[in-house]
């Protein structure tokens, strides 16, 4: 039985938010992250029981294509699963377990940035989502011989994950309340610009501009606004702000560069990357 390291757990809605977990061992503990259930107290009780039963962990259910047979509320539909969410521990900002038709949450993290080289501010919390079937397909096609424990540290596999045509979304949720869209554009210019140089060489100004120009001056991004960066089939990067599609750019290099910020070798939040890779490896073990 493979157990997931992702901190899905169910807590009663009235429990206080858990404190931020700092050590890597507690990061994934069931008390580190609260999952809010809105499907009713009966289901919450069943989920708590399930999460305490190692043979029926909630993550097994979340990632299983046979969810209905795993847990007591067997009739819960896929749509119901979107009413569960996972909170980023420090900010408490929550992320739904599933978005779109098939993308599942595999890691959450926090982007910090230093301002004027002085203080580190929490800029946004983020969730990393991937289509589990796409991930399993990649593993089945090319890495079937590797054990889950070997997969999570396999550089070639991780590179492939960022290059394959897998439906993925990075959801940003703005924490810092004084952001304007210009600073978002500038920040993307710097971070994505660096990755474009790293993977594609120097001549990518036009590509960078086609992406940053999607963030138009008229968009407002107060605290808790959501920006979705989604890799659609065919390496199309689609951007939505507060659920409104603002534009797309078809570029494998751009998609790869953006994913690298979150799951590459120098990610914004190492813990989030670890969570993501552990969960991908666990997924592979469920193939
Ligand atoms: C005052 C800090 C301003 C930082 C704004 C970052 C907003 C989103 C940028 C996303 C890419 C990145 O995290 O570099």
Automatic annotation (TrEMBL):
* One Pfam short name: Chalcone_2
What the entry lists under SUPFAM superfamilies is as follows: Chalcone isomerase
Name the encoding gene, please.
A04p000270.1_BraROA
Which family does the similarity line name? Belongs to the chalcone isomerase family.
Spans traversing the lipid bilayer? none
Tell me the superkingdom of the source.
Answer: Eukaryota
Q: Which InterPro entries match?
A: Chalcone_isomerase, Chalcone_isomerase_3-sand, Chalcone_isomerase_bundle_sf, Chalcone_isomerase_sf, FAP1
Instruction: Show the Gene3D superfamilies listed in the entry.
Output: 1.10.890.20, 3.50.70.10
The molecule here is called Chalcone isomerase domain-containing protein
Please report the stretch or stretches of sequence annotated as the Chalcone isomerase domain. 104-276
